[in-house]
């Protein structure tokens, strides 16, 4: 990362394609379970209400993620832009847009299962939660805040960059005001 030039980090199209294919596969499996009602041999999972409920939720959830991934495939904009204004986040369904340097306190990394996230520490995290108008996005931000201390968690799978290196470089840039341009 050079100190005086904007950095554009592209979206990782390979991982986005894998996510889309995985989501479509889960929609197909849930649809098959709904259509054929296979016998599982477990009284809980053989309950028709459980099967319908879980498979319908699966179709809705994975259908939404498939839609998101397909939409991201056609996105020509970079996943992250780092410049003198701050960080512009265009990585996912809960992207926040511009995060000014003055709002950022630190960068960290958290992991859930096999997924890693860049956590953007904020001076006023509640402000970012409150400015969300979409209820699902607001819930997502609130969940991130309660679990990671910040509403903004940028998934490593959507960007084509080493997350540990990115966090270190962003912290160095944050701590060195002259590096912001």
From TrEMBL:
**Origin superkingdom:** Bacteria
Q: Which UniProt keywords apply?
A: Membrane, Transmembrane, Transmembrane helix
Query: Which InterPro entries does UniProt cross-reference here?
Result: STM3941-like
Query: Transmembrane region positions?
Result: 20-40, 52-70
Q: What is the name attached to this protein's record? A: PH (Pleckstrin Homology) domain-containing protein
Organism, by scientific name, is Mucilaginibacter oryzae
């Amino acid at each position: 990362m050079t100190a005086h030039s904007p950095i554009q980090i592209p979206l990782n199209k390979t991982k986005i394609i894998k996510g889309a294919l995985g989501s479509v596969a889960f929609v197909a499996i849930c649809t098959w379970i709904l259509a054929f009602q296979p016998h599982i041999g477990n009284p809980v999972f053989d309950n028709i209400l459980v099967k319908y409920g879980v498979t319908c939720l699966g179709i809705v959830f994975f259908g939404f993620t498939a839609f998101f991934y397909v939409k991201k495939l056609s996105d020509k904009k970079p996943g992250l832009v780092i410049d003198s204004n701050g960080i512009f986040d265009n990585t996912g369904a809960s992207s926040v847009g511009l995060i000014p340097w003055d709002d950022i306190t630190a960068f960290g990394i958290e992991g859930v299962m096999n997924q890693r996230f860049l956590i953007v520490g904020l001076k006023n995290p509640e402000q970012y939660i409150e400015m969300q108008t979409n209820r699902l996005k607001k819930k997502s931000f609130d969940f991130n805040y309660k679990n990671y201390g910040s509403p903004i968690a940028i998934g490593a799978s959507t960007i084509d960059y080493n997350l540990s290196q990115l966090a270190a470089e962003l912290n160095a840039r944050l701590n060195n005001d002259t590096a912001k341009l």
